[in-house]
Amino acid sequence: MIQNFFSGLYELFLGRPLPANYTNDYREVVFPNTGLTLFLITLGMVLLYYYVFNRLMSTGFYKTQHWTIMLVLNAVIAFFIPIMQVNSNGIETHSYTYTFAFVNAVLSVVLFFLFSLLFKKGSVQAWTTPMKWPHTK
Known about the structure:
This protein is mainly α and 137 residues long. It is 71% helix and 0% strand.
Protein backbone atom coordinates (compact mmCIF):
# COMPACT_ATOMS: atom_id res chain seq x y z
CA MET A 1 0.00 0.00 0.00
CA ILE A 2 2.75 2.47 0.96
CA GLN A 3 4.79 1.25 -1.98
CA ASN A 4 1.95 1.98 -4.42
CA PHE A 5 1.21 5.38 -2.85
CA PHE A 6 4.76 6.71 -3.10
CA SER A 7 5.39 5.13 -6.50
CA GLY A 8 2.23 6.74 -7.83
CA LEU A 9 3.03 10.09 -6.23
CA TYR A 10 6.55 10.32 -7.63
CA GLU A 11 5.58 8.96 -11.05
CA LEU A 12 2.81 11.57 -11.22
CA PHE A 13 5.46 14.30 -11.15
CA LEU A 14 8.37 12.48 -12.78
CA GLY A 15 6.90 10.02 -15.24
CA ARG A 16 8.25 6.52 -15.68
CA PRO A 17 11.66 5.86 -14.07
CA LEU A 18 14.70 6.05 -16.32
CA PRO A 19 16.57 4.04 -17.45
CA ALA A 20 13.74 1.61 -18.02
CA ASN A 21 15.68 -1.41 -16.76
CA TYR A 22 15.60 0.15 -13.24
CA THR A 23 11.83 0.75 -13.16
CA ASN A 24 11.17 -2.08 -10.69
CA ASP A 25 14.01 -0.94 -8.42
CA TYR A 26 12.54 2.54 -8.27
CA ARG A 27 8.96 1.34 -7.73
CA GLU A 28 9.72 -1.36 -5.17
CA VAL A 29 12.62 0.15 -3.20
CA VAL A 30 13.67 3.71 -3.98
CA PHE A 31 10.29 5.49 -4.14
CA PRO A 32 8.84 3.91 -0.96
CA ASN A 33 12.05 4.36 1.05
CA THR A 34 12.47 7.95 -0.09
CA GLY A 35 8.83 8.83 0.55
CA LEU A 36 8.81 7.32 4.02
CA THR A 37 12.11 9.00 4.89
CA LEU A 38 10.77 12.31 3.58
CA PHE A 39 7.68 11.99 5.75
CA LEU A 40 9.61 11.09 8.92
CA ILE A 41 12.38 13.67 8.55
CA THR A 42 9.94 16.47 7.75
CA LEU A 43 7.76 15.50 10.70
CA GLY A 44 10.85 15.39 12.92
CA MET A 45 12.01 18.83 11.76
CA VAL A 46 8.60 20.38 12.45
CA LEU A 47 8.39 18.76 15.88
CA LEU A 48 11.93 19.88 16.63
CA TYR A 49 11.07 23.47 15.70
CA TYR A 50 7.74 23.76 17.51
CA TYR A 51 8.12 21.44 20.49
CA VAL A 52 11.83 21.34 21.28
CA PHE A 53 13.14 24.76 20.30
CA ASN A 54 9.98 26.71 21.14
CA ARG A 55 8.42 24.81 24.00
CA LEU A 56 10.96 22.81 25.98
CA MET A 57 14.00 25.01 25.40
CA SER A 58 12.15 28.36 25.07
CA THR A 59 14.72 29.71 22.66
CA GLY A 60 14.27 32.94 20.74
CA PHE A 61 13.99 30.82 17.60
CA TYR A 62 10.33 31.62 16.90
CA LYS A 63 10.23 34.24 14.14
CA THR A 64 9.24 33.62 10.54
CA GLN A 65 12.86 33.83 9.36
CA HIS A 66 13.77 31.07 11.84
CA TRP A 67 10.93 28.93 10.51
CA THR A 68 12.23 29.61 6.99
CA ILE A 69 15.70 28.43 8.01
CA MET A 70 14.22 25.14 9.21
CA LEU A 71 12.16 24.86 6.00
CA VAL A 72 15.22 25.37 3.79
CA LEU A 73 17.31 22.97 5.89
CA ASN A 74 14.55 20.38 5.52
CA ALA A 75 14.46 20.92 1.74
CA VAL A 76 18.24 20.51 1.46
CA ILE A 77 18.11 17.26 3.43
CA ALA A 78 15.18 16.10 1.28
CA PHE A 79 17.16 16.87 -1.89
CA PHE A 80 19.97 14.51 -0.91
CA ILE A 81 17.78 11.61 0.27
CA PRO A 82 16.87 10.33 -3.24
CA ILE A 83 20.46 10.66 -4.43
CA MET A 84 21.66 8.53 -1.51
CA GLN A 85 18.83 6.01 -2.08
CA VAL A 86 19.69 5.66 -5.76
CA ASN A 87 23.42 5.28 -5.09
CA SER A 88 22.92 2.77 -2.27
CA ASN A 89 20.80 0.56 -4.54
CA GLY A 90 23.35 0.46 -7.33
CA ILE A 91 21.28 2.46 -9.79
CA GLU A 92 22.98 4.75 -12.29
CA THR A 93 22.84 8.44 -11.37
CA HIS A 94 21.68 10.71 -14.20
CA SER A 95 19.27 13.59 -14.87
CA TYR A 96 16.22 11.58 -13.70
CA THR A 97 17.87 11.19 -10.29
CA TYR A 98 18.39 14.93 -9.91
CA THR A 99 14.86 15.71 -11.09
CA PHE A 100 13.64 13.18 -8.54
CA ALA A 101 15.71 14.93 -5.86
CA PHE A 102 14.25 18.32 -6.83
CA VAL A 103 10.68 16.99 -6.72
CA ASN A 104 11.40 15.47 -3.32
CA ALA A 105 12.67 18.84 -2.05
CA VAL A 106 9.52 20.59 -3.31
CA LEU A 107 7.33 17.96 -1.66
CA SER A 108 9.25 18.46 1.58
CA VAL A 109 8.41 22.18 1.52
CA VAL A 110 4.71 21.45 1.04
CA LEU A 111 4.73 18.80 3.76
CA PHE A 112 6.66 21.07 6.14
CA PHE A 113 4.04 23.79 5.70
CA LEU A 114 1.15 21.36 6.27
CA PHE A 115 2.79 19.88 9.36
CA SER A 116 3.40 23.41 10.63
CA LEU A 117 -0.30 24.18 10.42
CA LEU A 118 -1.07 21.02 12.38
CA PHE A 119 1.54 21.28 15.13
CA LYS A 120 2.09 24.99 15.77
CA LYS A 121 -0.76 25.19 18.29
CA GLY A 122 1.31 23.26 20.85
CA SER A 123 4.21 25.70 20.72
CA VAL A 124 4.53 28.29 23.46
CA GLN A 125 6.38 30.94 21.44
CA ALA A 126 5.96 29.99 17.79
CA TRP A 127 2.20 29.47 17.65
CA THR A 128 1.88 32.32 15.10
CA THR A 129 4.70 31.08 12.87
CA PRO A 130 4.45 31.03 9.87
CA MET A 131 1.04 32.80 10.22
CA LYS A 132 -1.68 33.21 12.82
CA TRP A 133 -4.33 31.37 10.83
CA PRO A 134 -5.96 28.87 11.52
CA HIS A 135 -5.33 28.95 15.29
CA THR A 136 -5.74 31.77 17.73
CA LYS A 137 -4.98 31.69 21.43
